[in-house]
Structure formats: C-alpha cells, structure tokens
Amino acid sequence: MSLRSKLPHIGTTIFTVMSQMASEEGAINLSQGFPGFGADPVLLDLVGKYTREGFNQYAPMAGIPSMRKILSEKTQLTQGYFPDPDREVTIVSGATEAIFSAVSAIVRVGDEVIILEPAYDSYEPAILLNGGIPVYVPLNSTDFSVDWEQVEIAISSKTRAILVNSPHNPSGFVWAENDLNALANLIRDREIYVVSDEVYEHITFDEKRHFSLGAHPELKEKTFVCGSFGKTFHVTGWKIGYCIAPPALTEEFRKIHQYVTFSTVTPIQYAFAEYLEVPDRYLSIPSFYQGKRDFFAKGLKETLFEVIPSHGSFFQLVSYGHLSEISDRELAEKMTRKLKVACIPVSVFYANKKDDKIIRFCFAKTNEDLSKGIERLQNLRSIL
Ligand SMILES: Cc1ncc(COP(=O)(O)O)c(C=O)c1O
C-alpha cells in the first residue's frame, strides 16, 4: 500500500529546517519567530498556582468564561468594541488552530480563497485540505502594501474568502484604516468571508497602530479575527490563542474547533484570565519591541544589507540583490553554516518560490544575541 498524500508538495517547514540547522551549527537563531527570552515570572507563577490548585481537567469547549470575558475587556480597551464573550469569543490552541478552524468552517470544495503573498505558511494547507483553491495575489514588492486593484481582479464568482495578515509576517507592514475600507468596499454585497490573522496585534512601531478588522463597522460581520497569546506574551510553546467572530460564524467555528482539539489547556487559561487584569502587561509590549527593532535595525545599517523598514511584528527584512545573485535559500544556508547566523529566505513565503533576494530576521531575541548576530554579519562579503 502506498498512501497518496493529500499535500504532496509540502515537506518539513523551512522554520524547522533552519532552526535545526542553526542548532547543529551552533548559530545564532534569528530565523524562527519565537522569543529568545523568558516570559514574565508573574505569568509563570500563575500557571504553577493553577496547576497545583487542581485546574487540570478539560476546560469548557469555548474556553473558560473568565478568560473570554477578560479578552473582551482587552478588546474594548485596545480596539473600542466589546465582543460578546459567550457568543463571539472562542479560546483556541494557538492562532494556527484558529485559522484552520475558520477556514474549515467556511471553505467548501471548489471555493476560491485569496491569499496575499508573501504569506505565512499555514494558510495554503488549510485551504487545500478543505478542497479549496488558493488564489495568490502579490503584495507590492517595494513596501509590501496591498495592491487593491490586484485583489479586485482576483475576485471571482467562486471567491469564498480572503486571508489577511496585519501586522504582517514576514514584512512588518501594518495596514492603515484605508486598507480596511478598501477591503470592505471590495467585498460589500458579496458572500466573501475574511480570516484575519492578527497575531502581532500588540507589536506595532512609530506612529502606526493596529486596526482590528473586528472593529470595522462593515468587516466585523464577515470576519474571523485570529489572535495568539503565545506571540504577545513570549510563550509561543503554550499554543494558546483566540478567535473572535459574529455569533453565526462563531457557531460554525466551534463545530470545527470542538473536533480539532475540543478545548484548550485549562491552567493556562486560568493564568491568563488573571494576568490580563493588568492592562499595562499588554500595553507595554509595543515599546518593548520597538526598542529591539531600533537596536537591530541600527546594527544592520552597519552591514552591507539594505534594510526594508519594519513597522510591526518582530521581523526585519533585508535585501541583498545589489550585492549578489546568489539565491536566498543558498544565502540563508551559507549564513548559518559559515557566519553562524540563521535567517529565513523570503522565497518560501511564495507559492511559486519567487526569489527577490530578501531574507527575514526575527529580532525577538536578547540584545546580546542581536549584537553577536550583527557582529557576524559584518563578514557578509566573505560568503558572497
Ligand atoms: C502570521 C502568523 N500567524 C500565525 C502564527 C501562529 O501562531 P500560534 O503559534 O499562536 O499558532 C504565526 C507564528 O509564527 C505567524 O507568524
């Protein structure tokens, strides 16, 4: 017997490949998007407290009530609307699950789903496994803004959904209010749903702020907002996130969620329900990461790379096309093996592996690691 793969072209993700290579080579791992520093000890103590106090059995399918309520309060404070904790908020096992369950709730065989590229790698398989057809629309190549004319061209009578992501991985582009309005105009009076990946909602810089699609007067009716506590609070390994969507969409979402995982890890929900009572714990995140972005970008400017401005997320793109024709994958490998600094080649974020000679660094690392990385990157010329 040989099993015919449902995802024949998909292998091990580049994030795993590069992290493994970084560890084999003893390289500084600026590739995969996870923080290289610990979480707030208060949060860790809360998890200890709730595990010891016996909060270790299945949580309610939609999430514990206090966690859903505090998330609604946080959403009120940061985005100006209060989703109904009972009918519009679901706690899930990471944003990856939220995206998968949302796509599964809406996409039927033969439906087209628009993906803006470069895109995070979990979107495409979620669509394919549900029998959908991904339709790729490239972002503008200079700043990774959305070309709304191209999106309009891509919409057909079969379009069922669009997947969007702001602040954006890998580019750090952050949507302005106008972008939300442009999307609302395009899908008005059409049965097109939106899956909005907002995992970097608390990581924006300079004058930029995050506009959740859930707060938009029109888009909120059609949108699944997918968030991640792992990203915001430096605990990506805990795999806990949320989905906010209007009641009718949440009802369908929960039908999938309850058979994908049923519920999400109980003591961690209790810990977050208490931790989120202090707003400064998330309101302080942007300035924390802005410090890291500034520190890293300043150092990169002393290398031969060209720095592409990052306005959000914890990623920094750099281009090197002015230096060499080497492919981005080859450069990433050479940098890891010879300079001992790991990064991600941006071509992997495109279905057709388009290579614009851009690589991505994650700057959610200690300043010590960022400094060491910068120092090693001064020798870039030696490997080109
Ligand atoms: C854009 C984007 N969406 C979703 C995720 C996954 O989030 P989670 O770990 O909560 O599943 C990531 C993680 O890297 C991401 O970068």
From TrEMBL:
A GO cellular component entry from the record: cytoplasm
SUPFAM superfamilies referenced in this protein's UniProt entry, alphabetically: PLP-dependent transferases
Pfam family, one: Aminotran_1_2
Required co-factors: pyridoxal 5'-phosphate
InterPro entries per record: Aminotransferase_I/II_large, Kynurenine-oxoglutarate_AT, PyrdxlP-dep_Trfase, PyrdxlP-dep_Trfase_major, PyrdxlP-dep_Trfase_small
Keyword Ribonucleoprotein attributed: no
Aminotransferase class I/classII large domain residues: 28-377
Keyword line: Aminotransferase, Pyridoxal phosphate, Transferase
Gene3D superfamilies to which the protein is assigned, alphabetical: Aspartate Aminotransferase, domain 1, Type I PLP-dependent aspartate aminotransferase-like (Major domain)
MF terms in GO: kynurenine-oxoglutarate transaminase activity; pyridoxal phosphate binding
Family of this protein: Belongs to the class-I pyridoxal-phosphate-dependent aminotransferase family.
Entry protein name: Methionine aminotransferase
Species this protein is from: Algoriphagus alkaliphilus
Lineage: Bacteria, Pseudomonadati, Bacteroidota, Cytophagia, Cytophagales
